[in-house]
Amino acid sequence: MKLEQYQTAIESSNIISKTDINGIITFVNDEFCKISGYTKEELIGQNHNIVRHPEVPPSTFKQLWQTILQKQTYKSTVKNLAKDGSTFYVNTTVCPILDENGEIEEFIAIRYDVTESVRLSEALITKDEELEELNATLEERVKEQTKALTQLNQTLEERVKEEVEKNREKDRFLFQQARLASMGEMIANIAHQWRQPLSELNITLYKMNKLYQACTNVKEGGFEESYEHAKKIIVKMSETIEDFRNFFSPNRETELFSLSSVAKEAIDIMRGTLERNEVQIRLNIVRDADIQGYFNEFSQVLINLLNNTIDAFSHNKIKSRLIYIEIDTLSAGDAIIKVCDNAGGIDATILDKIFEPYFTTKHASAGTGLGLYMSKMIIKNSMMGTIEAYNHEDGVCFSIKIPVKTVLKEEE
Fold first, then answer.
1. Going from the N-terminus, what domains does the chain have, and what CATH number goes with each?
2. Residue of 74, 108, 122, 216 with fewest CB within 10 Å of its CB?
3. How do residues 267-306 score in pLDDT, each as one tens digit?
């Protein structure tokens, strides 16, 4: 019973045929009829070569018979011809069936259809041949295009040289215009930066006049102190304009100075303005350092930051006003000076734009939008450092990093 079930399972899933020792078909299953297009009646009694494809060489069948007549199993992928003239491929296993005496009684062939796989393989082979042919012609076409491009490059190089020569004078003119435009920006920035010092000078001179008129009521040294402060502001203004005039000069000489000295200088220049605006300023020197650069330009950067903070105090109507300046030296070899305030901070949506030229939140009469831009240019180009801004607690911090030349003794 089980043998019959096995036989049924094999016959329903494979293409099976049996022949006698001479190759005459004695049995075919339904799958064989289905793939060959013949009926059982048309097949049984016929030689198995009824489905032989004419393109299969005789040597193949010679090898088949030599193998099975030696009582061995033959395996191969065979190309066959169906009744309607179509081709089909089958993976074939032919086994000799022996009788009780060990002699060949018949042959059984078990096959399964691989037509689609073989056709796909043949299609791939065809594509490969087409690609090889394409590559052969492509190489020749590439050579031709390369030759054409080489000729084009030769003529193009000559044309480029001619155009470069024609435009060289124009480039010089445009470069000069760019320099003049940059100079104009700096001069506008200087005018903006001088508003506060000029106001300071005006008030100081007014005080001097009042003290002079009532000199008998002035404590000793008062007049001299005011006079010296006025002179210092005037000198500072003169130095600033000279520094900016030489901004593009390649022969400028740098100087070695400490961060604490430039911070104290900026605070001293702004002393009167800070007092009038009731701004408390704290300078904390953790570890001072000498840096190489331009003292007056760095001083202008700090003055600009102080001026901006004072404007922010007024705009945001801050009552308790504090500016905190800290100087330290980092282990990475940079000196750092932080200028922080409690003026309310900067809107996060514009924080990344404040160093762009002409960007300002102030009224046109109060600022040009060049102060922070010029400050960044000074720190980057003249001091080889970086400047960044970030909101901190109830204000903003500007952090400036400058390469250190010498670490100085920590202040007590």
1. 2-113 (3.30.450.20), 123-248 (no CATH), 253-407 (3.30.565.10)
2. 216
3. 988 888 888 999 999 999 999 999 998 888 888 899 889 9
Tens-place pLDDT, residues 323-333: 999 999 987 78
Cβ atoms of 189 and 368 closer than 8 Å: yes
